[in-house]
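ugh ok fine here u go
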Amino acid sequence: MTPSEPIIQLDPKTVSSNVIAGPALALVSLILIAGAALLIFLTLLGGAIDKNPTDQFYFLEADTSGLGDAAERTSGNKYYLETRFMFAFVIIGLFFAVCALFLGLVALCSRIGSFLSSAMCSVALFFQTITAALMTAAYVQGRNAFRSQDRTATLGRYNFGFMWAAVAALFLATLLFCVGGITGKKDNSYSSRTGGRRFFGRKKSTRSARSRGSFIDPERQRRMDKEDSD
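structure:
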């Protein structure tokens, strides 16, 4: 009798968790990217519309009473470059965030889509981090300059919170896309080693079945010969 093939066992819980993990992480990443894009959009919207509630979204609020035009121009020129690059980078970061959002739909059904979405999201994270850093540096210096002249000045808590929260959301989305792609890779590599089988158990050997059959048929033949002789 030929030995049967080795038994291959696979825990159904492990299979189901690996299959679900990739799309679930991609879905969470999409929610994070959508939230980051919304926060960035609200920050930009606050500077374009001066109505409630968007009038609460500001970067710096200061007492400018008694300041002449010359003083305003001097204060504006001092932080001009920082804010100029800040708004350029926030537009670029928002663009890549939106691209990652649409590309992330592919990550729901593809491991390659997870890695591509992670790369696109990392670019958005890069520009958003620079934007938040420039924003903090420029407006904190501006606030300190006003306070040094005994004027009240406060930072906009909503805008600062929105921008840094967007950085955190993009970072988590990038990380989760990578984890989802790696999880899918492990599942595919295990599937290839097991011949694509998803259920535990033993593959029945046809050779052993034929061997068992070879013992049964002669015995049956002998019984028939004995009955004929009687």
